[in-house]
Amino acid sequence: MEDLSQYPLELPESDKPMVRFQNVTKRYGALTVLDDLNLDIAEGEMVSIIGPSGSGKTTVLRMLMLERIQGGVIYVDGKPLTHMQQRGRLVQASEKYLRQAREPVGMCFQHFNLFPHMTALQNCMEGPVQVLGMSKKNARERSEELLELVGLIDKKDQHPSRLSGGQQQRVAIARALAMRPKVLLLDEVTSALDPEVIGEVTEVIKGLVSAHNLTIMMVTHQMGFAREISDRVCFFFGGKIEEQGAPADLFDNPQRERTQQFLSAVKSAD
Amino acid sequence: MSYTEFLAEYGPRFLDGLQVTAIQFLLAAVLAVMVSLVMGLGKLSSNPALRWPAVAYIEFFRGSSLLVQLFLLFYVLPLFGLTFDKYVTGFLALGLNLGAYGAELVRGGIQAVPRGQWEAAYSLSMSPAKRMWRIILPQALLNMLPPWGNLIIELLKGTALVALIAVPDLMFEARQINGSTFLSAQSFGTALIMYFVFARFIVTPFMRWLERFMTRKLGRA
Ligand SMILES: Nc1ncnc2c1ncn2[C@@H]1O[C@H](COP(=O)(O)OP(=O)(O)OP(=O)(O)O)[C@@H](O)[C@H]1O
Ligand SMILES: [Mg+2]
């Protein structure tokens, strides 16, 4: 058992990133996917995560939203997410605590995962009404605003099966935003899209970065896009951060050999 | 006696029997749906106190014959002071038995809903109950309607067994009429046709309609 007393119960105002991974380890059975990860993400920061397949990029996001961890503590907005306080000590979070602690986090998936039995508008209203207890009227207003923002207000009464991939992904972004998250996780949100519609989704994301004080963690294979909009890029290799830095530094002047190899491999594939 | 005369004489009794069959069928179907939901969800529960009873239930009712279960309810339970009316015993046995098969359909239908739907619902912080009722079950329902169509027809055929505990259903009337007239071909032939018509022209079209209705409602059209 890990000694949890080394971790603070809450992060102090003076040192309070929006997201902190402290000594985080994630295992699937005997396979250690992420080993002793330490990563801080500031409020309003846009961080891109790049790296080869299987390097643990998706896992970083999933630990915030869907998976339990085997070592370390994750903090969101200064409060522990993976653990809760009990008699002045940190203990493993209960299911209920986890779910509530994750309320400030939103996630969009590679395959959209819209609810097929609901219209675009209903997809967006579901969380506010069912989880936040908002009135239908207010939830509808908020959802319509967001569908407007992603340019799909005219499709609000369509079911996902009637929407293109790019449109579905934009609805999915609106659905996540309807919960007013502080942190938005984007896992390869353009990877399942036809090349000609990728632009409509990246435009929406660019809009989010400039207009909202949203903290975004984005896993992507689109190096050009990552470079254009990120404050920081993290290159993952074998479950560790091999190198990180401002996009211009990391892309133009990578220090580590693996980063150089990866970037030149992606470049030649393009 | 011509077949027309036979029908004129015994037609009303066949119709009375059919009515009893239809009621037994409907009540058993409602019970089966409820049982399958409870047991299907129970079998998927992560809580062993819910899971093991559901597993035991499903194994028991699928692993032994409906006729034996019917007799057990009718003849054995009274020995323990539990007596049901024969009508109640009839649809109870049918519903409990078919519910065990239905539970497997519910389980399969739920498991066929893509993992990503659970994750999307979770990522909106929905509670486990809301995830199930609002997101997963509606989709599972659509997955399982086609096999439910078959199960419901099995249920209809199964109703003929309640004649054996003297519930005056269509089969019971056919046997009675056969016993007094010795016109086996007419007696059982008529019953057969009535079962067939009921299944083919009422139950099956209804299930098809339900499928179309649900598909439209769930926006997959
Ligand atoms: N549910 C799981 N069970 C077992 N192993 C898993 C599971 N999910 C991921 N892994 C393993 O963890 C490692 C990291 O996976 P992850 O999905 O985070 O990689 P990734 O960097 O997102 O890759 P990709 O670019 O292909 O999406 C891989 O070796 C993968 O096989
Ligand atoms: Mg991935």
UniProtKB/TrEMBL annotation, chain A:
GO terms for molecular function: ATP binding. Signal peptide: none annotated. It holds the Pfam family ABC_tran. InterPro entries: AAA+_ATPase (IPR003593), ABC_ATPase_HisP-typ (IPR030679), ABC_transporter-like_ATP-bd (IPR003439), ABC_transporter-like_CS (IPR017871), Ectoine_EhuA (IPR014343), MetN_ABC_transporter-like (IPR050086), P-loop_NTPase (IPR027417). It is found in: Cell membrane. Keywords: Amino-acid transport, ATP-binding, Cell membrane, Membrane, Nucleotide-binding, Transport. The keyword Membrane applies. It comes from the Bacteria. SMART domains: AAA. It is a peripheral membrane protein. Residues 19-263 form the ABC transporter domain. Belongs to the ABC transporter superfamily. This is Amino acid ABC transporter ATP-binding protein, PAAT family. It comes from Roseibium denhamense.
Automatic annotation (TrEMBL), chain B:
Pfam families: BPD_transp_1. CDD domains: TM_PBP2. InterPro entries: AA_ABC_transptr_permease_3TM (IPR010065), ArtM/GltK/GlnP/TcyL/YhdX-like (IPR043429), Ectoine_EhuC (IPR014342), MetI-like (IPR000515), MetI-like_sf (IPR035906). SUPFAM superfamilies: MetI-like (SSF161098). The keyword Iron does not apply. Residues 14-203 form the ABC transmembrane type-1 domain. It is a multi-pass membrane protein. The chain crosses the membrane at residues 20-42, 54-75, 87-106, 140-167, 187-210. The keyword Transmembrane applies. It is found in: Cell inner membrane; Cell membrane. Its main location: membrane. Keywords: Amino-acid transport, Cell membrane, Membrane, Transmembrane, Transmembrane helix, Transport. It comes from the Bacteria. Belongs to the binding-protein-dependent transport system permease family. HisMQ subfamily. This is Amino acid ABC transporter membrane protein 1, PAAT family. It comes from Roseibium denhamense. The lineage of its organism: Bacteria, Pseudomonadati, Pseudomonadota, Alphaproteobacteria, Hyphomicrobiales.
